[in-house]
Every structure is written in C-alpha cells, then in structure tokens.
Amino acid sequence: MVYEAQEYFVAGKTQAAEALFRNALQMYPKNKFVLSSFGDFLISCQRYRDAVKAYVNAIEVADNDPYLFWQAGKLYFNQKKYSAARRYIRKAIENGLSETMNDQARAILDQIANMEKTQTVKNPIDVNDTISYAWTLFHEDRISESEKVFNDIMKKVKDDPQVFLNMGEFYNKTSRYHIA
After folding, report:
1. What is the pLDDT of residues 134-165, one digit of tens each?
2. Alpha helix positions (H), 45-176
3. Is 129 exposed, middle or buried (0-12, 13-18, 19+ CB in 10 A)?
4. Distance between CA atoms of 145 and 148, rounded to whole angstroms?
5. Is 58 strand, coil or helix?
C-alpha cells in the first residue's frame, strides 16, 4: 500500500497518494516504515509541521533509529525550533547516524550554537531556547559564557519567573553566592 501511494505521488496524484497513506496508517498505526514513509511524503508536499509529527510518532514506535531522529531534527531546524532540533540531532548522532549525515548533523549543531551566541531575547519562545543554550554551555563547562547568557536574559526579561528560577539554580550549582 505504501509503495502504491509513492507511485501515485510520483505520477502527480497527490490526493490519491495521501488517501492510500492514511489507509495504511489506519491499518498499521504503529509501523515505523508506514510512519516514516508518510513523513517523507509530507516533506515532498512541503507540509513540514505534519511531517515532523509523523517522524516523532515513528520515533515513539521504533526508538533509537538515527534516520528518524535526523529527519525530525532537520525539520525542527527549518522551523527555527532550535532547542528541539538540537535535541533530535544529538539523538541521531548518539544512535549511530551515518558518517556523511553525521558531518551534516554536526554542521547544523554548529549553526545553532552560532545563532544562539548572537541571539537576543525578544519573546517568550526565545527565552526557552536561550535558557536551553545557557544550560548547554554550563554542561560543557563553559561557565563564564553560561553566566553571561543568563545575565543577558535577566536584563531583557526581568519579570519572568522561569528565568529567575533558572538563574537561581545556576548560581546554586556554581556556588557563586552562599547565604550564611
């Protein structure tokens, strides 16, 4: 059924292809091949948000498949959801992504890191990614850089309790301030 759907898509019969994919999903809702093929189809149709859902569902069924993590990570990256992209791409690498894709994955992780270095906090979505970046620096033992990112967040988003709690946890872990 999946191969037939793919043939329909190649022949330009997108609606028929999608109908076949949906039938396959109803018959085999927990099948990694059906889910990932549907994700590939959705990418071809430029329906990226739906595609990432298909890959995440496939990951739940077939844990530790580096291809699925890689596809989800790239889609999140293209949607500028850098925290999720980083998480999925790292999982792809950890689970044995091929050498060629591994190089591409590391290049994307470097791009994310470079973007985060120059990122400014403008809205709540950026706050989560920036906090995530600060903790990444912390866990890489880049404490002074992490502190700088946390301080920048505090200056820009003073009334956000999430920022305040993370900053407190950071100072607690670095033992910079002790209350006697």
Report:
1. 777 777 777 888 888 878 877 777 666 777 77
2. 48-61, 66-78, 82-94, 99-118, 124-139, 143-156, 161-174
3. buried
4. 5
5. helix
